[in-house]
Amino acid sequence: MGLTPMMRQYLEVKESSSDCILFFRLGDFYEMFFDDAKIASKELELVLTGRDCGLEERAPMCGIPYHSANSYISKLVSRGYKVAICEQLEDPSLAKGIVKRGIRKILTPGTYTDSSFLEENKNSYIMSMYLEKSNSSCGLWFADISTGEFNCTSTFFDESIILDEISKFSPKEILLQHNFGKNFINIIKDRFPGIVITTLKEEDYTKNIIEDQFKDFNKEDFNNSILKSGNGLLSYILHTQKNLLSNINKINHYNIVDYLTIDVNSRRNLELTENLREKTKKGSLLWVLDKTNTAMGARQLRRWIEQPLINKLAIENRLSAVEEILNNMSFHEDLKECLKEIYDIERIVGKVASKSVNAKELISLKNSISKVPRIKELLSNLSSNLLSSMYENLDTLEDIHSLLDKSLMDSPALSVKEGNIIKDGYSEDVDSLRFAKTNGKKWIASLENQEKQVTGIKSLKVKYNRVFGYFIEVTKSNLKFIPEGRYIRKQTLANSERYITPELKEMEDKILGSEEKLIDLEYKLFIEIRDTIEKNIGRMQKTSKIIADIDCLSSLTTIALENNYKRPTINMNNEIHIEEGRHPVVEKVIPKGEFVSNNTKIDTNDEQLLLITGPNMAGKSTYMRQVALIVLMTQIGSFVPCKSADISICDKIFTRIGASDDLAAGKSTFMVEMWEVSNILKNATPNSLVLLDEVGRGTSTYDGLSIAWSVIEYMCKNNKLRCKTLFATHYHELTKLEGMIKGVKNYSVSVKELKNEIIFLRKIIQGGADQSYGIEVAKLAGIPKEVIDRAKEILCNIESKEKEENKINQCIDKEYKKEEKEKTKSLKSQLEEEIASKEVSVSFDEEENKIDKKSANTKKDTPKQLGFNDIEKDQLLTYIKSIDVLNLTPMEGFNKLYDIISKAKKL
């Protein structure tokens, strides 16, 4: 017993798309079989049935109506599945044998562009990565085929850099070589669990597609890893979409260092586009800044936040544009009114390119374009560089508007294959066929009244169905009233008879012929209109980009006005000065006027590392984040929440947030903490801004303190680092480092104690905190009274001993004597010279820990000059000569010096 012909056809098609769920078109349904059916029935909650397939057991089967397939496809693709659409390639009524079928499109998370799947205000990226193993060059591409955006860059293979780029674009699918390292793939899956990984064969990267796709493409501008990665991406798009899209026509070749670098953890911790807990937009910086009026503007603003600028001129241009709009409020109001009526031109153009656009969407395009001339007129009165450039480059697309306006109905049918889309007057043939169709139906409508009068049969009806066409229906009780020979019997039913007349048949042929011809002609004309629009895709993309930028500037103006933001100034002195800065998000979620503003001064010299102490819940983390967000907003080109701000452009922002701050959703181990600190120390520069919160708290007190202390030393003393740093800690012992390490300055959050209660004043002041108020914070959190009382008792017992704290403070004092190790070595030669000349003066300065040469003939209570005539002095000299300075530790050296001084005082 063998497979049926239809099932053999199914398996042949399935073999070419083995990694997909195959939607196999059978009549008005898409059917799924075997394992695909089992998966689909579970994921889509469909009834699993069976079908005879020629084998002993029935094939598992489930199906969906073809006209409602999009919602089912969206569910599968959003869950990481790929769906192959197999269509009937010929009319079943004309087919001989099995209907020809083939895959028309493969829908994947990175290539599916249906509106039910896409997020309106967020790009849908697919990423391609190719590693050139000979030189470790890695080519990266990020494309959104719904908008035609195509970005590429290259870097030496570095896990952290690539993860940062993935975090920046958040692709839904990543294309990799089939032999790419499994360890790195596992890291990607671990960090970004929602991303689908697809592997390509090596030959996919060697196809020369990229040069054919882009006009004026110069191969010399790209290295080999970028070329191969791009060819791999385009070959995958061709494989899934079955054609190369015309909206993919421009390459944005960028360098990673052209934008502010924000690593994966910092993006999450600063909550740039989603909050930490719910992973939603609300509570993020984007939530505050997004007052855009178009979907294009919303996506562009998200990109601005993900990729802040580092070019001073570009930042100043945006700031000046926002300032000019702010000073022209009538312009701003008119602009917003225009923007509100503009649809998503980018994605409509993408549908034109994929040939999936319908007439209603083209009308939306027409209506959107109609607002562009008014926007250009408004821009004509502005003078800032950026807005003037927009005015010069804005194409009003009036020819496209004219074509759509005269060709398409204002309210066309949804389907392009059902007619009623071409406007009267555009085509004489359409008008003629539409007249014939309309008048024919009027004749048929009048025929019913005419026959009722002639026959006197009031229940007589003229009806239509697809099998018999038009006919006259008379009930059997009225058959006797029909004049003899007037009608020709067509069909006999139980309760009635159906008739036709020669005139009715002739009119039916005219009506049905004209209707079918009209539908075909309207579809043909629509395709011509769509193809004409497609030839102008580049122009429309350019216009949509300018509108998106204008919308972003309008949004930044709105939030500056609503929240009393100020224009920041930009300096090149590596200094950040913020007066009365505020956290842009926190101040929006608490009652108006309650947020406590704070000043910030930080540089790379005397105030390089601000050591911030104070109790939990007092506002240390909020303060640190607000500084980073103000810097980032400045580099977006936004006004900022403060009284004034003078900002130095940063090249990178790093954050290290502890486990209690929801680090990596359950992966808050000490190892992760140390990995993040290591990443910062290796990659930060003097132009970077670093936020470190509670470094070392994931381990024991001594270990944690030691690590935090060492990190501070390294950041302040390494001249290749010395980055601007905000360092929050509960290790109050570290406050002793101010004055010992250049650049460390103590700050704390002020707290007021009132009747055994504490009040957080939220104000950052100079000086370190002397305690953590941990028990008071626990009390505020609702810990039971008996627990609080016992904690106070234990604390009193611990504080009465004071051993451990004294140990730590002594350790800090002693350890900083190690600072003089190099100085001790440098003084070695001077000491030997004194010995050689038989004159040595030794003293120990307890404050500065230095070896000083003193003159002889001192008083009794100071080191005396050693004479070499008596025996004791000779013995001391011999002892001094025997000291091997180079093999002494700093502490041993200080002990030797103390011993020498003690013996000298006895002489």
* Annotated CATH architecture of the largest domain: 3-Layer(aba) Sandwich
Name of the CATH superfamily of the largest domain: P-loop containing nucleotide triphosphate hydrolases
Low-confidence stretches: 660-666, 838-869
The largest β sheet comes out as: 7 strands, mixed
What's the level 1 CATH class of the largest domain? Alpha Beta
Total strands: the figure is 27
Taking all residues together, what is the mean pLDDT?
A: 85
Proportion of helical residues: 40-55%
Family: Belongs to the DNA mismatch repair MutS family.
Domain DNA mismatch repair proteins mutS family: 688-704
Pfam family, one: MutS_I
Binding site for ATP: 614-621
Explain briefly what this protein structure is:
Keywords: ATP-binding, Coiled coil, DNA damage, DNA repair, DNA-binding, Nucleotide-binding. By secondary structure, this protein is of the alpha/beta class. The protein has 31 helices and 27 strands.
